[in-house]
Amino acid sequence: MTLSTRYNPKEIEDKWYQHWMDKEYFYSTPDDREAYSIVIPPPNVTGMLHMGHMLNNTIQDILIRKARLEGKNACWVPGTDHASIATEAKVVKLLREQGIKKSDLTREEFMVHAWEWKEKYGGIILDQLKKLGASCDWKRTRFTLEDSLSKAVLEIFVDLHKKGKIYRGLRIVNWDPVALTALSNEEVIFTEERSHLYHVRYQIEGTEEWVTIATTRPETILGDTAVAVNPNDERYTHLKGKRAIIPMANRSVPIIFDRYVEVEFGTGALKVTPAHDANDYEIGQRHQLETVDIFNEDGTMSETAGFYIGEDRFKVRKKIVKELEASGHIVKIEDYNNKVGRSERTNAVVEPRLMKQWFLGMKDFAKTALDAVDSGEVKFYPEHMWNMYHNWLNEDNVRDWCISRQLWWGQQIPAWYLGEDIFVAKSEEEALAQAKEKTGNANLTIADLTRDEDVVDTWFSSWLWPISVFDGFDSPEELRYYYPTNVLVTGWDIMFFWVARMIMAGYEWSGDLLGEEAAKNKGVKPFHDVFFTGMVRDEKRRKMSKSLGNSPEALELIERYGGDGVRFGMLSSAAAGNDIVFDAPIDPKTKSVLNESKLCEQGQNFCNKIWNAFRMLEGLEIMDAPKEESTAAINQLAGEWFENKLQQTIAKHEESFKTYRLSEVLMGLYNLIWNDFFSEYLEFIKPDYQQPIDKATYEQAIGFFERLMTLLHPFMPFVTEEMWHQLRDRADGDDCVISKYPVAKAFDTAVIEQLDAAIEVISKIRFTRVQNGMKQKEALKLSVLKSEGVEKLLAKPGMKEVILKRGYLSALEFSDTDEIEGTIAFVAGTDKFFLEANIEIDVAAEKEKIEKDLKHQQGFATGIEKKLSNERFVNNAPPAVVDKERKKLADAHAKIKLLEESLKGLG
RNA sequence: GGGCGAUUAGCUCAGUUGGUUCAGAGCACCUCGUUUACACCGAGGGGGUCGGGAGUUCGAAUCUCUCAUCGCCCA
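YS: structure for the whole thing
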């Protein structure tokens, strides 16, 4: 059978993924083995695979596959997040297209539509992950809104309420006038936007005097209930006890003195609108001000405003400014950049509104979450992420979490109202029982109670994810086995939304759920390590996102370069934790991103190289024993050398894995496989054209190849599985995905160095040939000036033979003289070699080259001499370092001597 | 305003506790090479005073300070 010269990932990748699924290799149940568990950061159920997902999930897959190869019980739990706001918006939109208004539906009817949508379109992303090779335990696929997870949400809501941590309060909240729901602080994105600072004058009541305030939001004037100045501001002290008249509304409001007001800002006088600004609200609280809410929920002016009722706030701003200008109230208008908060989901400008909402007190939680990381129980990679985390969670910054959302797609808050009373309970029955007890009225029915219409924030379910995916709230068995999970791999952008909160939840509940003993033995944290991946950015360093259109299509990339190629590309650009600039170029003509990537191409080329190296091996004829002793010696030497290189690499990679330096491991394997194994080892053992190879060497090569495939498997699962099966006839179930990961063994650097020295000689021979326009493969004689070192080196069996073979030499001889007619000399290591040259030697050019080298060596030697003559260096530096310097100097001197002699020889 | 990170070859980035020629990788570039596993290839090469300045040290890409530029988080 002849194999194509091209590796074709398409059918191969699908074939093996199906095979792994059929064999249920990704399926995990608790057993005697050590568990290695990862929970996926659940992508939005509405989501499509993007570059961030690919990076994130490739990393998780690498870790989980490696654990599996190491014989651990690897369990990667997949799933999706119900994403209240995003999904509800999608469903509402779809219904609108069908002519159905959400407001015409009951909650129950809406939920039926929403679930239909979810079943039909949701979770496409999980299938996309399969294309990438993700080895999730698909039987465990979870959804944050499924029954058992929702049940857990209600339970912990009730629990936290009992503990007094959840409360319902009247606060200024972030209101999204498009999604028509409150948001948490984390869901508001502040960006600087160009706007204006309006200076507006208010008349002092009963006088002809005016006070000028500065505001960016003149439309809120109608909700003003005071004018505030700083008590230390001498400009305004005379206004004590006076009142100001609000333009248009013609209401009179007090002039108050509050230290919050910045004297330097604007005019030093501030209009106070307690209903529409968090700071103003606090001022209002301090001075018992009235709050006047002038907006409807959709951001239009309300009846209370009294003007422009029903018109949008931003249109009204313009109209009011015009009106104020006409009435002479505008003193001046300045250009001004201010921070505008927009809803993360709808991009609507968030309106601060005074509302009753449910909150979770964060003080204690924040401390728990801080301690977990401070104490080192939970480790962050990269470490500096701790700073951001710490900054957010410190007492001054952390604020209570608004957890209620005015939506339907989510877990409905388990609170029932009867008059002024609130009953929080897991079920209606319990709530009713509570109500009966409280009121003493045994005749109450559930119809007398009104359930809270709101749902909880999506993150209020996802913070339980590491516990709830193992059904930890129902039974401890799986939790005791898989929890704490080994590592969480996620982008740092959801550090506060999710990571910090999972830590809080872990410490809050898992202790009780695990039971005392298990909690003590295993710990209650949700994960040991958090590996924060960087954001994937485009050429201009913008975050890749669908809305910007700057992200290549993930599936297109896989289609083009194969899953392995894309995995390689993602990872090779992603050093631990740093943001990555992905190389997908932008078409200058269309301005749209091209689904191309040099890095992925490199990965694809790597697959092809592996494939072709195998084709060479596969095409060899095999004989029992080598015909010649020299061949046997070379093969023996090559095998020894590569075995040691391999062990050296494995050991190094173990260290890198510990700190999640995965791209380092991948590049290491790339070099080991391509350079050391293919370019050196295989070339050493490759027999002459159409000659057979001996069985032992062939077996050894296949053995190396096989181990390399296991090592590479976590990174490039498809090509390695394919090669695994090409390399040998395999019994059923003998698959690379479950092969045995090599354990690092001792290695001998001396063995590595010796052959490396020979490789240097070979390389110099080639260089000499290229420099002098000589043929690469013309058999030439090489001589070497006798030295102790080179004699010892060449005495090693196979060493001389390997130089002869790879240098295309006719002979390799020792010489006693340091000048040989008709040769070109070069220095390798500290030895001088003479390559036969059947050409006219350009003496001048040769001299120039030697002089250049000589100059370099002399400079190098001078540097070291200076160092060594410095007493403080010799006395203070560790002896090993000094010795190395001495050795370096001796080598340099030896080289200088050889070069000088060569120069002399040339005349 | 508070905090974090970055600045190394034309480009994208590695460089772990300061010490093996440590200044590196990939891509790009240049020269040569094709009946020999692979041109998605092979052999060889050029290219950076590690953002500027100062300091600590026997020794600094690495530590400290400072300036500059860029990016980000929080207010």
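YS: worth flagging: The radius of gyration of chain A is 37 Å.
IM: good catch. Also The mean pLDDT of chain A is 89.
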